[in-house]
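Lab notebook, bench 4. We co-purified these components, and the gel suggests they stay together. Before we commit to crystallization screens, I want a quick structural picture of the whole thing.
Request: model the full complex, all chains together.
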Amino acid sequence: MSFTHVVTFSWTGDAAEDPAVVDGIADALRRFIADADLPGLRSWSCGRDAGIATGNADFAVVGVFDDVDAFAVYRDHPEHRRIITEQIAHRVGQRTAVQFAG
Amino acid sequence: MSFTHVVTFSWTGDAAEDPAVVDGIADALRRFIADADLPGLRSWSCGRDAGIATGNADFAVVGVFDDVDAFAVYRDHPEHRRIITEQIAHRVGQRTAVQFAG
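Here is the predicted assembly.
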């Protein structure tokens, strides 16, 4: 069994208009994943919507963890919180998340 | 590189009230994944939200494919469309999807 975390974002403000802003968010998140000590992280990816379906959100993050405790370490990591506070929170038009066992 | 498909659902009607209805949807999707010939499908999972965060959606599906063509085979598979039409579509309060390279 594993524990999966999914988030979709629709951007507002500069992130909705300038792809470079979203690339900056993705790069910051990828650096955090590469550099942080996150035991129990099995896989993680993020990316901009490919534009092949109408009505989609703009961006998604998917992480698979050993269990809910490993997810919580990721969720609460100070570098993750810093990126959310400085680069993500004020640019979120809509955010939808699910965590599930599996 | 891979191609990731993410969907979150918030249920309405009987699916919002009866966990067995959602279990039936999850079981049908899992049987489809197990039985169908889906070349280029790397991983697939779905599940009910774990209830550890406020404001979350109710259910999510995550699939990772070799590329967008492999995703399209999954998306358009007749058994997938049948499950969506018969068990999912009329129970969706809100649906948010993203497909991304990665």
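The longest strand of chain A covers residues 92-101. Worth comparing against the SEC data before the next meeting. Chain A has one domain: 3-101.
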